[in-house]
Amino acid sequence: MRSLYQYILYTLGALGVLLLAACQQKPEAKIVRLPRFSITNVVAGGELREIIQVTNGLSFYFTKSEVCVWFRKDSSVVVIFDPITMIPTKTSLETPLWSDGEGEEVFDVNADGVPDIRRVKGRSEDIFYRGEWYPRHKAGTNTFILLNGQDVAVRFDGRRWVERAGLSDGQGQGDPTNADSIETAPMKSPAKH
After folding, report:
1. What 3-state class would DSSP assign to 64?
2. To 10 degrees, the CA torsion angle through 65, 71, 72, 73?
């Protein structure tokens, strides 16, 4: 049989828990006002689109398989996705010219989270090969990078850039069925508004 002392302790403990819970009530949810925005028609990506422009500089549009968000004049993120599964298939990130560097566009042509191609504004197009960026140059249908002072033929295998066997120093005929001419033109950011 429990003593009176234990019952008092249990009762005081229960009252303490109830009081503590009552004192920690959640504050009411704050209503945050959205910035002012407008909807306008703009030619973007070669097509007439309805663009949502926000007064803070953010703008975006979407289609059944694409979302584009502009952060500033020369900054954007584009995500292309499968309209049925809603799974991203390609992404691009465009950054503006900075005072300490150059602007660039980075493409992830299979949306796996690893960049594949980088276009540095006013300079070159690079490919991401074995964790490093290398300037890309083409000879016919072949893609090459300069690796340790030697031209190395590479191709995109659907996941990443890999060395193409049998070609070196810009020689040989290209295979038009391979994937080394990755289509990035549709990923180019639409005309700025």
Report:
1. coil
2. -10
